[in-house]
Amino acid sequence: MSDQQKQAQEPDLNQLRKVRREKLADLQANGKDPFAITSYDQTHHSQEIRDRYEELEGTQVSIAGRMMSKRVMGKASFCNIQDLKGNIQCYVARDSVGEDVYKDFKKFDVGDLVGIKGEVFTTKTGEKSIHAGSITLLAKSLQILPEKFHGLTNTDLRYRQRYVDLVMNPEVKDTFVKRSKIISAIRRYLDGQGFMEVETPMLVQNAGGAAARPFETHFNALDEDIKLRISLELYLKRLIVGGMERVYEIGRVFRNEGLDTRHNPEFTLMELYQAYTDYHGMMDLTENLYRYVAQEVLGTMKIVYNGVEMDLEKPFERITMVDAVKKYSGVDFSNVKTDAEAKALADEHHLEYEDRHKKGDILNLFFEEYVEEHLVQPIFVMDHPIEISPLTKKKPDNPDYVERFEFFMNGWEMANAYSELNDPIDQRERFRAQEELLAQGDEEANTTDEDFMNALEIGMPPTGGIGFGIDRMCMLLTDSAAIRDVLAFPTMKTLGGKDQ
């Protein structure tokens, strides 16, 4: 639409809004204020009437929803009502609802919320419908739905005004219904495996458990600076120390980082910890969980994302990070002995690194550059270098590497898991190394959490732990292109001092 067209349209929109407010004022003046109504007896949804039509035909039902279209034809009219489950046509006749009600109905606007009671029937054209016996205006819409003119096509506006997006685009509502089902299925699976759902603090003194910059704020009551959590890990491990052998939490975490199609500064993370198992146990759990959720939500274990099928039925491939880098770059880090050799290889392959980086950091850079994009089918990448895994147990036979895996699908990291480090002496050394990195300018490095260290000294059993990105899982299972498509209200840049 051109700027001239938009300018020409604006007065029309303002006039239409004015007319709607006048209609509301008239209703209120005549004792018919829709906003005075506090409840409505909704007995059925639209899709239920369609699904159970043979049973419901000829019976009285009561529906409620938003009027999305209206055709007035003299003494009888049709309208379309949209509710949570879909939409259904309603036949409104003057002789059925009464002359006064019909007169009011003709003044209703597209976007108004209405309740209709009537008989289920089929029109002459075969449309399953409701023959209205009564109709009630439940709320007056004072705005104009965008479809009236040119549709809600502006992506930025869709995210900012998700409520309009949900009204105008049924597939958006379907995405969020599926998201709810995904999270419910995760809970059912874990509860069935003996896990206990818990809650841990969001406001923390020490934001550890991940490599990320935290958001910081000030707590006035205690006059202390505190942070928003970047991970769930350290508090959940405290519960393992306390004897709660299987725990999980699904909650928001906050990372002060950029925005892109897979990152939002606040997102939903699920972490779980299981005593007396290791990262192999976490691999088995991941396979079983993904299969269960896909089957429950989609009815299949074959996921199609952006036209590419990913098969959850086959055993998930397992490969070490060293072997993956060798496979896709031709560089064999098992033969690399020193940091200098690793940096020389990075120079040869034009990979940028920092002076503080060690051999393990360089290996990870090769992995990100050469490997990740190829990991489309479900795969576990195992045995990461110790330099990038400060909370993970070393491999007994090769202490340069740790018992860690990342789960990949569609070239994305979907989960991250460890055999958890439970040696407090080793953990303190790892924290000390992290603080050295922080001093060298690594803003994502961890600092020593003394209370967590005290918990480890009390004694933590051998434990397997894993973190799942819930939003990416929802993206895959709903075929959504960006993380904003699965967040009801994603983070947006403020416009002109306030969101518009």
Under CATH, the homologous superfamily of the largest domain reads Bira Bifunctional Protein, Domain 2
The domain tally reads: 2
Alpha plus pi helix count? 16
CATH level 3 topology of the largest domain: BirA Bifunctional Protein, domain 2
Q: What ranges have pLDDT less than 50 throughout 5 or more consecutive residues?
A: none
Q: Which value, in Å, is the CA radius of gyration? A: 29 Å
Q: Which percent range fits the helix content? A: 25-40%
Task: Compute the average pLDDT.
Answer: 93
Derived from helix and strand composition plus strand pairing, the structural class reads alpha+beta
What is the tally of beta strands?
Answer: 20
Cα shape: elongated
- CATH-level-2 architecture of the largest domain: 2-Layer Sandwich
Largest sheet: 8 strands, mixed
Which percent band covers the strand fraction? Answer: 25-35%
State the strand order across the main sheet.
Answer: 6-10-11-20-19-18-15-14
CATH class of the largest domain: Alpha Beta
- Report how far apart the termini are: 20 Å
GO molecular function, one term: lysine-tRNA ligase activity
Domain Aminoacyl-transfer RNA synthetases class-II family profile: 179-490
GO cellular component, one term: cytosol
Binding site for Mg(2+) 2: 413
